[in-house]
Design a protein that fits this description.
6-stranded mixed beta sheet, transport, ATP-binding, Rossmann fold, MacB-like_ATP-bd
């Protein structure tokens, strides 16, 4: 039994930049346990979002492996099913559909079974969204929309949560509230979470911090 929820093993990625081959990720490895909330920081253009996209099977690495639990993701034909069942995404832009009410947003990638309906009510309660479940996105604040995105990410009970700059469009108070909610759900539901961020104001809420720069990932705090 693998003690890690997600492992990135020797991940490398390079892009062609004119006549040069620019190395963005250079033999990077990262292990995250269930219930662990990891933040990756670094300058713009350092490859943070590229690494997150590879972890979530949205982008292929030039070299290396992604292991979720005991499953190594090898072929692109596995990617859609892998993302649907094993990964929950929280993006900078909440990406809610304007024509769906809050409650229905949670069922975009899962069927409305009795178990899932119960889970939806539970998560909406925990994120203080239960009174808003019949609202459309246009009737929500920025922080409320991001909370709906968090709820949706946990609905398929994934092994891993991947968050790409989830506070970028929020002010300090709302941004911190959003990260507090992610941290709470990660601990309660024993999920692994990886967040890339520029927001140093919320780093005290995570368990481990890594710096990504010049293609190298270094742990700077635990």
């Amino acid at each position: 039994m693998n003690k890690y929820a997600i492992q990135l093993k020797n991940i490398s990625k390079a892009y062609q930049d004119g006549e040069q081959n620019k190395i963005v990720l250079n033999n990077i490895s990262l292990d995250v346990r269930p219930g662990e909330f990891v933040a990756i920081v670094g300058p713009s253009g350092s490859g943070k979002s590229t690494l997150l996209s590879i972890a979530g099977a949205l982008l292929s690495a030039d070299k290396g492996d992604i292991i979720i639990g005991n499953q190594t993701i090898l072929e692109k034909k596995q990617w859609n099913e892998f993302r649907r069942r094993r990964v929950g995404f929280i993006f900078q832009n909440h990406q809610l559909l304007p024509y769906l009410k809050v409650y229905d947003q949670l069922f975009l990638n899962t069927k409305k079974t009795s178990e899932k309906k119960t889970l939806a009510e539970e998560i909406l309660n925990e994120l203080e969204l239960i009174d808003m479940k019949k609202r459309y996105p246009e009737g929500l604040s920025g922080g409320e929309k991001q909370r709906v995105a968090i709820a949706r990410a946990f609905m398929n009970e994934p092994d891993v949560i991947l968050a790409d700059e989830p506070t970028a469009s929020l002010d300090k108070i709302r941004g911190r509230a959003v990260i507090e909610l992610i941290a709470k759900e990660v601990k309660k539901r024993k999920k692994a979470a990886i967040m890339v961020t520029h927001d140093e104001r919320i780093l005290d809420l995570v368990d481990t911090i890594y710096q990504l720069e010049d293609g190298v990932l270094i742990k700077i705090m635990k």
